[in-house]
Amino acid sequence: MGTILVTGAFGQIGTELVPFLEKKFGKEHVIASDIRNVEGVFPGSRFRMLDVSSRKDVSAVIREEDVTSIFHLAGILSATGEKNPDLAFSVNLNGTYNILAEARDLGVEKVLIPSTIGVFGTSTPKKGTPVETVIRPSTMYGITKISCELLGEYFHSKFGLDVRGLRFPGIISYRTAPTAGTTDYSVEMFLHAIRGNPYSCYLKKDTGLPMMYMPDAINAMVQLCEADSARLTRRTDYHVSAYSLTPGMLEEAIRKHVPDFHVTYAPDFREAIAEQWPESLDCSISSRDWGFSPKYGIEETVIDMLENLRRD
Ligand SMILES: NC(=O)c1ccc[n+]([C@@H]2O[C@H](COP(=O)([O-])OP(=O)(O)OC[C@H]3O[C@@H](n4cnc5c(N)ncnc54)[C@H](O)[C@@H]3O)[C@@H](O)[C@H]2O)c1
Fold first, then answer.
1. How far is CA 9 from the centre of its chain?
2. Which of 114, 235, 276, 304 has the fewest CB atoms within 10 Å, counting from its CB?
3. Whose CA is nearest to atom 10 of ligand 1?
4. Is 100 in the pocket of ligand 1 (CB under 6 A)?
């Protein structure tokens, strides 16, 4: 067993992936890293400050810690990317290039990079969107993330680096609040519901997007990472998703458990981003190649989210 580096570890996904990997492989084999340190999140874990946009620093951490696999989560998400495209370009694109190039040069065995439904644009078919389709994103997030997918494929075919990746939909979770993605309304709705507050949603009531619950997302990443390379017919663009959800559907599902919950709708600039994305994904290639099979439907997600948020 070697050493796994997780970049962007204090984010929505990293805060759940790090403890999962530590439990599976042992704390001594996992290094959490981020551009910032948040005290108390990973007690007793190995941690390195790391700005992925500095190639020198990426190189130093991989060398000094003898890194063998990387889960590269550091990134700037859709809504923040639209407010600060320079930052999104630098972190998403230069950061990913630095990770791939240093992984190649320093003999890292495997790199896993989550991509996103943000790679799609208005000309992409909206329902059951296949992996191979029209891909013309118009947000800086989408442009940088599709470029990262292609960079990953390039490093695989040109240099033999084992790069893998999946396109995540919106991810629902309770441990860490999402930063500034377009699907964050889902988590915000839960938080308002358990606090007994009404919620004003920034998407339209009937805007459907593919979504999944965090435990399924974490399982999918680790499953893909461990999959037999000979069975992989794709590299960086495996689709994963559990259901197609609109804010109205989620409101209704939460109201079954919180009858007084009330939502109003006031779409802002994020509605325009969401309207460029698919409503549902075709995940059959992931199921076939490495057994993707999500466990949480909408009702299971709602019950588990409410239980955990109330307890916390
Ligand atoms: N959460 C989702 O719903 C979702 C959906 C699709 C794809 N993804 C992808 O998954 C990955 C992780 O997403 P997330 O939701 O955890 O994001 P997040 O925004 O919650 O976390 C990103 C982390 O990256 C860190 N970071 C920012 N700039 C950095 C830099 N220069 N160097 C090192 N770290 C830096 C931030 O401090 C933060 O902790 C991203 O690549 C994102 O595109 C996430």
1. 12
2. 304
3. 114
4. no
